[in-house]
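User:
I would dearly like some help making sense of a protein record. Take your time, and here it is.
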Amino acid sequence: MKIRIILLVTMPMLSSINIASGNQSNCIQTYEKINFQTSSKSICLTEQQYLFNSDNDDVSITGRMASLKIPDGIKARLCTASSDDSHVCQTYFKSVPKLSDTYKNQLLNLQISRFDKNDFYMVVSADPQYPWTCKDDLMNCDDEVRAKIDNESRVKSLNKLAIDLKGKLVGSIINGDLTAFGHDWQFDKYNQYYEQELNINNYPGLGNHDYSNNVEDCALNNCATRMASYLINKVKSFSYSSFDLVESDVYYDFPSLRKKYQGSLSYSWDIGNIHFVQMNYKPFYEINWNSWNFPQARRDYYVIKPSLEWLEKDLQQAKQDGKKIILNLHYFSYFFLENTSIINILKKNKIPAIFSGHSHVVNGISSRESNIYGRGKNLTLFKSAAAKYHKYLLVHYQGEVMTVQGVKNDDDGQYTLYDIGTFSLN
């Protein structure tokens, strides 16, 4: 396989990029096998005013790219070169021992640039929920024309933010309700906007509209399966820290082949010193369903379990690694703070902030809890508004603090910022 590499430097002082051997601290090392086996090429940045682009001077690597070593201070964006709906991009901020199977047998483009892990931004949004556009959340109305404008303008504003922040915007967290019901035509629109048109990493979570409301209420359970399958494949495509999924081998149980997916589908990932966790709908959610997998001629079983047991183990490792922990989920109820297991997890890990969605209207602080950790230490609860309200949150992580701003976008994708506050991560 031939892998074409397009190398782009995005920094005030342009750097040259050299294809060379060696393991310099400013070089990305590619490997043909997983776990950094069989070194292939080093791609290096130097401090010269020079821009290299292989569109003008082709450079190719023969063989498979299966893992990447990325040193501190550099990020790598890997994209499949296809321009159709299968086009996939992901930015990596640390070494990747096993690249997703998505990149197998693909022509790949690679962009590398400088990255300060102690100074970056993350967007936190919720409820794209295409094509739900009701202003009264008790109603059930869809306006596809309005929903198209709402979601397109959100993505346009995100892409404009990414340009204006000069490479410091590392991704967009979506806290659930990606679609209104998980139908194929709804998911296709979500995928178009948030996977194909969005130019930064997408870290999605599932909400009640994705895999709760539709179970046993959609033909062959295809809606819930579609959304769960999407999330599973999405998480596998990037360098996660932990993923609450146990996936069986294919087995036969009369009268058909079968496969089981078991877990909460919660996952976590690190960027610099921040440990992000996506818990999906809510911590106690559990449900079972099955559906027929036509392409594989088998029946797939989904066993969704509560996430707290996994969460406790995940946060224990993050704490040992000295990470600051940020929790995300779709639905957060104040009744959760009366649950002993949740309170114990919060106290043990001194979590500074929890971000959620579901309410649609609120975009900012929903509560500051001062009775959990003791005097001088608060748990701040944030909510992000739905796409129909043209608002979301922008979080700036700098060392020991995070600064949160609200973003209001118009129908053309232009945006304005307003201050919400600066909060300690300790």
User: Anything to note?
Assistant: Residues 370 and 378 are 5 Å apart (CA to CA). Residues 2-114 form a domain with the Gamma-B Crystallin; domain 1 fold (CATH 2.60.20). Confidence is low (pLDDT under 50) at residues 6-16, 48-63.
